[in-house]
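quick one, 351 residues, struct below
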Amino acid sequence: MTIAVESKTEGKAILRDLDELLMTRGLRLNSGKTMVLSAAEAKRFFWADENEFLSQQNLAIKAARGDAALIQAIARRLRRRFDAFRRKQHTGQWDKIYKRYINIFASLKDSYVLPHCRLLILEQPALRAEVWRYLAEIGPSEAAFNSIREYLVSGDALDDASIFQSTRALTLWHVPPGSRMHRRIRNLGRQIGDPKYAERSPFFFVGALWVLAKYGLKKHMLDLVTSNQATWEVSSFLARQVAAIIPKLRQNRDAKVVRRMIEKHKHAAANSVLLSLDEMTSVSAPIPGDLRLYILNGKNATAYSVQRFLICFHVLTSNSIDRAERLHLRAELIHYLTDPLYLRVVNAIRI
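---
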């Protein structure tokens, strides 16, 4: 909490009253993290000048309305100021200012922060969430992939959120099918899908599951699920993730094998996913509006996730749904999809 006061005396009085209030609830203020600052100290602590500059640049970007020349001029100002900021001492809310720089460069899809991502990931845990979002936004490159890969395969990947967010960034990239980057991401998914990674954190298994759901083959998914069965079969959450990738295996023998594995352990959350998938393929024409809207992603309201695509694939490949309905849905979908891998798969489906 930040509280503005007229004097240090008033600030101390508020702290005393707040501490007494917290004590009635079994809590205490952490005196080591509590400060009463003068106006000048607060200006430095909160980096007021830097915040004002960044707010002005955000307004300038909106006013530019996509004008390439104006955007380039703004980007140059941001780069110069960012370089100067990085040389300053890390005091006060330095990390919050760095986060704002990362987010604004991400909004411009500017790769200027990219050379710093590797060290930020390893040395600044507080900035990781913004770095993952930045890497997801600027898209695939050798430097971006290497930053993610180096973190995941190192011994530093310990927090579940970073494992999840970094692998999610990979699934949001638009990667040409069959390209070198496609193969590298697939190989990374298979690597972190090794049971020894799941022993460190089950989110390695979740990350591998979603990476391979987009970039892998059916056999890769089956190997992943069977080799990690001891991990996911005892967890309702993990079993639910496995159930959600059933569409990748199509409605054949492999899917039935995985389905029996899920049903054997009777996790309600996982079985509810299986039931939902069954209900989707038993709809009568026309396809329900809410399901159609979900597949069309609200006409690109957000990034097209691999989870959404699996539902899309499940519906388009279901022979029990009216063929004309599926053809119409595919035609609509192709109009909105921009991911080359998804487009290739959708166009290849025999309806």
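The chain has a mean pLDDT of 93.
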